[in-house]
Amino acid sequence: MFRFILHTIAACLLLAACTSEEPQTFTPQKEKTVLMYIIADNSLSQYSMRDVNRIKENLGNNIDNANFLIMIDREGDTPELLRLHKDKDGDIMESIVARFEEQNIADMDFLKSTLEEVKKRFPADKYSLDIWSHGMSWIPDNIPFYAPDSKWIGQDGNNYLNIDLLADAIEQSGMRFDYILFDACLMSSIETLYELRNAADRIIASPIEIWSYSFPYERIADMMCDSENRAADIAGQYAAYYDGESEYRTGAVTVIDCAGLETLAAEAAKLFEGTAVKAEDIMTADIQRYDRYTYEIMYDMKEYYVQAAEICGKDIAPFLEQLDKTIVYRYSTDRFANIIIDTDNTCGIGTYIPVAGYSLWNDYYATLDWFKAVSRLPFI
């Protein structure tokens, strides 16, 4: 049996008892390496292998020039790193690259070590990352409140991965992705997107919850392996599936050009220069809400900043112009569960409107890059 050769003591401890079923070889440089990171040691476990099988059954010719890797951890199993590839007859096969002892893969250091190993053993011209799990936007872990059964970002048992640590893991690994796909709920929030602005060229995410059916992998599997950046096409297939072609006719997806996010933050900051928005001036009832929780998490960013600009007496046009440049693709059905969505006036990116009483959230929120960049965000 072969073991990963890791370069730091910390990484060795994290990947202890990690044995390869495949010999530890280093593949030739390919056009694309895709890593699907499935954190399913939670209530979504039953759906995880379904999506792996949908991918296996629908990979096409693009896999010839790509590595397709899947890190997966399910309830009752230990983590595994899988590789999908063609055999000599052209059939898609699944090989186990490595098995791990039971541990938390929703962990910054484990993710970082995985990315480093993928980059070393499966080099490519471009990389893509699909994070599949529960998701709750930028909301930090260990702050309990009532919520329906939707997707955190990285729930492994009782462990969660905060968005700033996700960004740190990617940065420290030295990787950059042509796109990051969030197959997780509520991840199209400006706080999440801005934290990851240096991690990818584009980000695919939803401002609302994603049904357990997930992304339609039978439609996008081969696109994921394409050397071209197919982020908008992948989102388009998500929209096509949820727009009347499925019994779950409800969905929203947004594709963000990360290159425009810092300019967007600069325009947002101008709206609050020299002004103070009073709590009683913010009419949240007039702003699209994306979440269904007891605590307010996600409002539409465009509608919020339009209202804030009016209150502050500022010209909203430069902000809206930059927002349009930053959004590559946007789609939404007109409702999700009991939420009616104003598809004409919303932008498909959510934001937290700080509430003074949410002190634990606000302490963490103040550490995020978006808050620092805009600086004068009001509390209500």
Task: Report the portion of residues in β strands.
Answer: 15-25%
- Number of DSSP helices? 12
Terminus-to-terminus distance: 58 Å
Shape: globular
Order of helices and strands: EHEEHEEEHEHEHEHHEHEHHEEEEHH
Backbone structural class:
alpha/beta
Largest sheet: 9 strands, mixed
User: Can you count the beta strands?
Assistant: 15
Helix amount, in percent?
25-40%
Major β-sheet strand ordering: 6-5-4-3-7-8-9-10-12
What number is the mean pLDDT? 86
Task: Describe the 3D structure.
The longest helix is centred in the first third of the chain and has 14 residues, at 108-121. It contains twelve helices and 15 strands. The protein is of the alpha/beta class. Strand 8, helix 5 (190-195) and strand 9 form a beta-alpha-beta unit. The protein starts with a strand and ends in a 6-residue tail after the last helix. The strands form four sheets. A nine-stranded mixed sheet has the order 6-5-4-3-7-8-9-10-12, sandwiched between helices. The protein has a two-stranded antiparallel sheet with strand order 1-2. Strands 11-15 form a two-stranded antiparallel sheet.
Secondary-structure blueprint of this entry?
Elements: E1 2-3, H1 9-14, E2 19-20, E3 30-40, H2 45-56, E4 66-74, E5 80-86, E6 92-99, H3 108-121, E7 124-132, H4 163-173, E8 177-183, H5 190-195, E9 200-205, H6 217-224, H7 231-242, E10 252-257, H8 261-271, E11 299-300, H9 301-312, H10 317-326, E12 327-332, E13 335-336, E14 339-340, E15 350-351, H11 359-365, H12 369-374
Parallel strand pairs: 3-4, 3-7, 7-8, 8-9
Antiparallel strand pairs: 1-2, 4-5, 5-6, 9-10, 10-12, 11-15, 13-14
Helix pairs in contact: 2-6, 3-4, 6-7, 8-10
